[in-house]
Fold each of these.
Amino acid sequence: MTSKRDYYEILGISKNATEAEIKSAYRRLALQWHPDRNKSPEAEAKFKEINEAYEVLSNKDKRAAYDQFGHAAFEPGAGFGGNYGPFDGQQRTYRQGPFQYTYTTYGDGMGPDIGFDFGGFSDPFEIFAQFFGGANPFGSRATRKPRYGISLTFLEAAKGTEKEINVGGKKKKIKIPAGVDDGTTLNFDEFYLTVEVQPDKVFRREGLDVYVEKEISFPEAALGAIVTVPTIDKEVNLRIRPGTQPGTLIRLAGKGIKSPRSSRIGDEYVRIQVRVPERLSRRQKELLEQFEEA
């Protein structure tokens, strides 16, 4: 069986490449190897390989899994939770005259598709619109769906929400699926919607995981305690073990963000910060000195 090439090698980028560098490499190679422009026998296979590499590396979760496990991350039964492979989901086909291109979207058929980002193009045929200076080499094309943007709070994006937006002068109520991230593009029947997620003072997101900081006192760290911490659903009680050190990370399994593409749910990580008092009474100083001596 022929082994797959490294995705970074396919796009000609380093493993430290930024999102912008990944997108730029994809755009350049897509123009070069599209089968309707490049008539070499290997063009179709190259173009498919380029799109497969980009679909993985342009997604934060998939890229992290690929960096850790390689191609094995997307094999059946790899344990990444449901339809997580690069070609799981629903097939979508663009047709333009005699040409067509098939790609994958993710959704359950009940709401918006979470669309594949074609390197900044709205669809594969827009690659040619740029190459030919705005002209369409395929003749007249279907009317392009309008694009809108929406700003969500962190919790709205994490838990999902309903919003009312203005589409073509008409108000329309839409459902935003739980787990969308900043920059996600949702594909509705009549339009595309790009999501902007506002930063949050309490929660910080990394993939599907959520990070929060919890400040405790020195006695609580030394003796142990039960403290409350926020999660995206509600506050929960957290047990602090005696002798907990500053900077300790405590994992709350399943308290993170649900993937909009599968059944995976991330975790919450609580980073413990120990509060050191700036001013002490004479009695407090005496007690600490006794503690130090003991």
Amino acid sequence: MSMPRIDAHQHFWKIERGDYGWLTPELEPIYRDFRPRDYTPFLEAHAVAGTVLVQAAPTIAETEFLLSLADENPFIKGVVGWVNFTAADAPDRIAALADHPRLVGLRPEIQDFPDGSWILRPEMMPAFEATARHGLTLDALTLPRHLKHLLILLERYPDLRVVIDHGSKPEIRLGQFDGWAQDMRALARQTSAYCKLSGLVTEASENWTVEDLKPYVDHLLAEFGPQRLVWGSDWPVCTLAASYGKWISTVEELLAGLSEAEASRVWHENAVEVYRLEMEG
């Protein structure tokens, strides 16, 4: 398959920066620096026309680090950064960061909060309003338990562009489907949210197969359609369960029923649309 791809979800990190609380030596295969030169072989090998670099630490320093990488590496077409949405100065922070042409979105790491209603706290509303006002996309890093509250948020802010990361991390290894499926159906039908086709292999069992993933991907395709599904690798996190190439071939198999035009939406065009990427250069 030679159609161009946008990798709408990948990471870089530098361990010595010290703000990756989740990245511990127990995650030995990925507990090392990952830099642009580690990714560049994929550009030609897999027809990747550009990437969206997503935050992996909840600090402004992380956002500035990623933007500096985007300045130095033209293949990084956009950065999804982090701002403390509960801080009183969040709107000012967002306004300042939004001046950078490569900042395309923000991700407040909703999954880290056991209380699903956290995103509905009144003190966070100015940050959501500022995100929409500056034309930034909200990456909703949620778990299934957050979805009902995410629906309320999106109904409250219909102008906020949103992409749900990793299909909201369904518990594939436990076979949990029905509740997740119902909530994702509601979001697909009642909001304009997009959904990332990424991060699923690390939610599946160690010896996962394409058939393990198929019911979940088929449901996302049925509800969001090829018009609102966005492919991403979640590299290098995905390498805990699959190589970059293996994830691509898996998605190719899962999307085999789509027309070329529909597949191109998932692989490329939807990412450009939801993140408003500038593809020249």
